[in-house]
Amino acid sequence: MENKNFEDIFEAKMAKNEIIEPKDWMPDNYRKHLIRQISQHAHSEIVGMLPEGNWITRAPSLRSKLVLLAKVQDEGGHGLYLYTAAETLGTDRDELLNALHTGKAKYSSIFNYPTLTWADIGAIGWLVDGAAIMNQVMLQRTSYGPYARAMVRICKEESFHQRQGYEIMCHLSFGTSEQKEMAQDALNRWWYPTLMMFGPPDAESPNSENAIKWRIKRESNDQLRQRFVNQTMEQVDYLGLTVPDKNLKYNETKKAYDFSEPNWAEFKNVISGNGPCNKERLAARNEAHKKGEWVRAAAAAYAKKNKDAVAA
Amino acid sequence: MSDSQGPIWEVFVQKKAGQPFVHCGSLHAFDKEMALQNARDLYTRRNEGMSLWVVLSSAIVSSSPEDMGPFFEPANDKVYRHPTFYQIPDAIGHM
Amino acid sequence: MNKELFKYTLRLADNALVLGQRLSEWTGHGPFLEEDLALTNIALDTFGTATSLLEYASRVEGADRNEDSLAYFRNEREFYNTLLVEQANGDYAKTIVRQVLVDAFNVLLYTELSKSKDETLSGIAQKAIKEVTYHYRHTSSWVIRFGDGTEESNKKAQEALNELWRFTGELFEMDEVEEELIKKGIAVDLKALQPKWEKQIDELLKKAILKKPENSFMQTGGKKGIHTEHLGFLLAEMQTLPRMLPNAKW
User: Fold this and answer.
1) Cβ contact (<8 Å) for B28 and C137?
2) Nearest-angstrom CA–CA distance, B33 and C134
3) How far apart are CA A131 and CA A262, in angstroms?
4) In chain A, which residues have their Cβ closer than 8 Å to the Cβ of B3?
5) Which of A12, A26, C98, C139 is the least crowded, having the fewest Cβ atoms under 10 Å away?
6) What mean pLDDT is predicted for residues B12-22?
């Protein structure tokens, strides 16, 4: 059969909302786009463990320590599910990690911002996970089977993360004056970076068109951003905090909030390596990988020597 | 390929005794014991199961999309394999 | 207040709390993803046990301290964990060797403690047995992989063992606290555990092609609140926030 024929079958499946599985024929650019998107997503989970991981040893109560530990662990798990989904497309984890470690691969810009106080852990759970889950929920119905299955699992596990963050924000906002100040400061610092998470404005988003056609993405960046602001404002008001945006107000005619765009020049800089913590994040990942090298080599050598440890 | 992460294993979880083992995902591990432990630590963190299978991904034989026609379509017209194909007198009732 | 029971429970609790704190330092920095998650599971179990024990200690004390105040507002000299668990993580071999020595001990300890006449301690122990049995399975298989892996991994595991061995004697030390509670059927006779522990470790080291260190001079003090220099830093990091804002609730 010719490629043309395969392509027709693929297009017909897309038109019928059917799912593509690893062994199905798929156009090269579909495969490439998926590998890029899934691995970026995986990298974001893994790098995302770092800013929150910062606070595990300093969590202010035993309960909050357990919760944060479980949450950061989940993120590692999510990275793992996603890497294995990417691996069904003919790449391997080593290759993907190598791209991350050498700075070739991208990950969510948000994790290049520092976690300076305990309130940042609340803000990340509430805002960052809240923003992420909007993307993730829609990706449960994405066209590539292994990706969709990973997302179903991730969404199920992720459901406590945002609540955990908001719970911290509640404790702080209704706590002592220092705690409240901490909460407001975190909101000030995380608001715009969170809005950036949805990606550049639709007009400037180069990958969006195909991504929507292939159901690798199901809503545009701007649509998601607007929906996020709309649903978050009630939560902000409840806490008695203020969003650092003078232009933010409810627009009766469009039944949605008007708000200021984030600083897209900053976004571009953070994405291309100039954020406040890019260097630290990459260095931490590289160091862990390097320190683990002899461990992996030992396990491989042991398996090689003891054949019955691998085969039946 | 210089894979320093170990081979890929497929994980199957049984939720309760008597139920089938269902594929739930994959992982990397260097040996059997590690694969089993990793499966436990990764895929049963929320009481998802009570029994586990792990199998080297490379040991799985799977059908291809091209097999779809010859493998599965011939079963379409074998209506006599289904109970509704047969007529039983009303007087007999459920059988 | 039953002073002996309070101190005994704190000793058990502090071992779990300090070890959990050490293990959690690895989260996000493990040698590969699967193992990162596995070690974090061990940390979670360990903190869970610590929390139950501290909560019980606060009830035994009957003062106005809860489990968090016991964890966050005691000073270094009021912590009664053994020196072994506070030792720095070092490389992965050191972390795993430290852990396997403790896991082997914990399996024996909690098995006996589950028979305690103190129902709360017995209940906590019964839950913990299952957890530490799995921890031992995990860490002992790593010790074997290291010992029988590469030359480098064997060397690292052996060095870790040599370095940590001097802290193992303290695990079995007893004083009037234990002696008093053993009479009441509450505490575990640690001396009786020692031969079993040694036998198990001997067998493991043999499988792992590692050499048991010569019985070095055993360090002691943790159970009386006299620690190595490591603990102060660990507590400073752990306790910083509640002490910065002592009136805050988290």
Assistant:
1) no
2) 12
3) 15
4) 92-94
5) A12
6) 95
- Comparing CB atoms, the residue among C32, C38, C145 nearest residue B41 is C38
Cβ of C32 within 8 Å of Cβ of B28? The answer is: yes
In the predicted model, is pLDDT for residue C27 greater than 80? yes
Residues of chain A with pLDDT below 50 are none
Q: What is the pLDDT of residue A207?
A: 66
Domains within chain B, CATH numbers bracketed: 2-61 (3.10.20.520)
Answer yes or no: is C250 within a domain.
no
Tell me if C249 is assigned to some domain: no
Q: Which chain A residues are within 8 Å of B64, Cβ to Cβ?
A: 23
Kindly state the average pLDDT of the residues C89-102: 98
Q: What is the pLDDT of residues B71-84, one digit of tens each?
A: 888 888 888 888 88
C185: domain CATH number?
Answer: 1.20.1260.10
Neighbour count for residue A104 (Cβ, 10 Å): 8
Asked if A66 and C242 come within 8 Å (Cβ–Cβ), the reply is no
pLDDT beyond 50 at C92: yes
CB contact under 8 A, C37 and B42: yes
How many domains does chain C divide into? 1
- C8, C94, C99, C164 from C143: Cα distances, Å: 31, 10, 10, 14
Beta-carbon neighbour count of residue A239 at 10 Å? 19
ipTM: 0.96
Interface test with C, best of B4, B38, B44, B52 (most C CBs within 10 A): B38
Find the residue in A nearest to C47 (Cα): A66
Interchain contact A53–C (C-beta under 8 A) = yes
One-letter amino acid for residue B36 of the chain:
L
Give the residue numbers spanning the domain of C66.
3-211+221-244
Whether residue C142 lies inside any domain: the answer is yes
Looking at the predicted structure, is the pLDDT value of residue C160 above 60? yes
Strands of B51-56's sheet in order across: B21-28, B8-14, B51-56
